[in-house]
Amino acid sequence: MAMTVWEKALAVAWGKDFEAVPVVLQVYGLVLKRFGGVKEYEYYQDVRLQLRSKVAFQRRFPSVVNIGMGSYPEGGEMITIPTAFGGEIRWMEDSPPYVVNYPIAVPEDVDRIEEAGVPDAASGVASEFLKRLEYFYEWFPKDLREEYGYVDGVLCPGALVEGAALSMGYDKFFVWMRLHPDSLHRWLRIATDWYLKYCRAIEEVVGPCKVLWVPDHIPHMMGKKQFQEFVLPYLNKVFGRYKGALRVWHNEGAVGHMLEEVDKIDAEVWHFGPSEDVARCRLKTHFCLQGNIHPPDFVKMSERQVVEECEKLISMAWPGKFWLSTGGGMSPGTPFRNIDAMVSVAKRYGKHGSFRTL
Q1: Which residues are CB-contacts of 309 (< 8 A; sequence separation ≥ 6)?
Q2: Which residues pair with 290 in a beta bridge?
Q3: What CATH code is carried by the domain that includes residue 223?
Q4: Residue 61 and residue 324: Cα distance in Å, rounded?
Q5: Rounded CA gap, 262 and 286, in Å?
Q6: Domain count, the chain
């Protein structure tokens, strides 16, 4: 029996197949909003439009896996933690929402939150998100679920440590590392406990976890010691809960200054950014690398340039676990002909790291 597109990508991620290079993208609202000819706010508020646009994209690119938010309801993935603890958000006309009133301003706020206990999993925007997920679970086409591993057992709970930082503001988060480290750790423990509670609520909708996709960009904003203390333990508490599932860490920020520490993240796939050296990441980390053409550059490239860049990437990544992609989610205005060009390169990839003419 022939392997599905998702099974082929899994085989590469698990290190069972080095003969193919899957194209695994993250094409989401920034690009898919144009399917309905709408701006982001309208896209985020219309779960039916989201589903139609994701299905249409998949039909258009049958050999591509669209991971993470590419096949999930959107609108709150970065703000679940802030709103679960009482933060207020503001929606923009053509940009993602942001936090306007932080639930944490002073250390005493952590005392208050700790005393109140971990909120319900459906607190804040998570309530609406879980409803949208139920809609996706009911209506996402069965053939696409089976071929690409979508929806069933897929968890995309949003930002973890970065979500905790967005609950107080990045500046305060970094200052507290020095001034109030104990309070910050208490807050991170509480936020992580809620996050895991939310993961369990997602599993109640989609079933036991098979894929865990965690976007967390906070590591590139700090040094090695801060990462070791304030990020790694909390990411790994979540990833460690789901051993056996395919665990994907999405972070296109530059972390080349601490690859030895990044390698300790207990995940199988790293969706990495364009500033990282592919060969160095291959040498110093265990991950299946997903990337890493700069998304804004990908928008502007000619098809010939896309082909050349993809060939160069694959050559540097060989031999090893590699998913061909952009280094982060695709940018607005991405021409679909460039995705076609990327797919054509992957199809020409040969058994021994050479390219063949179809």
Answers
A1: 293, 301
A2: 271, 323
A3: 3.20.20.210
A4: 14
A5: 10
A6: 1
CB contact at 8 A, 251 and 217? yes
DSSP 5-51: HHHHHHHHHTTS--S---EEE---HHHHGGGTT--HHHHHH-HHHHH
Confirm if 81 and 99 have CB atoms less than 8 A apart: no
Domain extent, residue 27, equals: 5-348
Tell me which H or E stretch contains 249.
strand 246-251
Examine residue 355 and state whether it is found in any structural domain, yes or no.
no
Q: Is residue 39 part of a domain?
A: yes
For residue 42, is it within any domain?
Answer: yes
Separation between Cα atoms, residue 340 and residue 85, nearest integer Å: 43
Residue 282 lies in a domain: yes
Reported pTM:
0.96
Return the number of other C-beta atoms located less than 10 Å from residue 263's C-beta: 13
Can you give the length of the chain in residues?
Answer: 358
* Contact call for residues 274 and 292 (beta carbons, < 8 A): yes
State the Cα–Cα distance between residues 342 and 21, nearest whole angstrom.
11
**pLDDT tens digits for the chain (358 residues)?**
789 999 999 999 999 988 789 999 999 999 999 999 999 999 999 999 999 999 999 999 999 999 999 999 998 889 999 999 999 999 999 988 999 999 999 999 999 999 999 999 999 999 999 999 999 999 999 999 999 999 999 999 999 999 999 999 999 999 999 999 999 999 999 999 999 999 999 999 999 999 999 999 999 999 999 999 999 999 999 999 999 999 999 999 999 999 999 999 999 999 999 999 999 999 999 999 999 999 999 999 999 999 999 999 999 997 789 999 999 999 999 999 999 999 999 998 755 456 555 4
Alpha-carbon distance of 335 to 230, in angstroms, equals 39
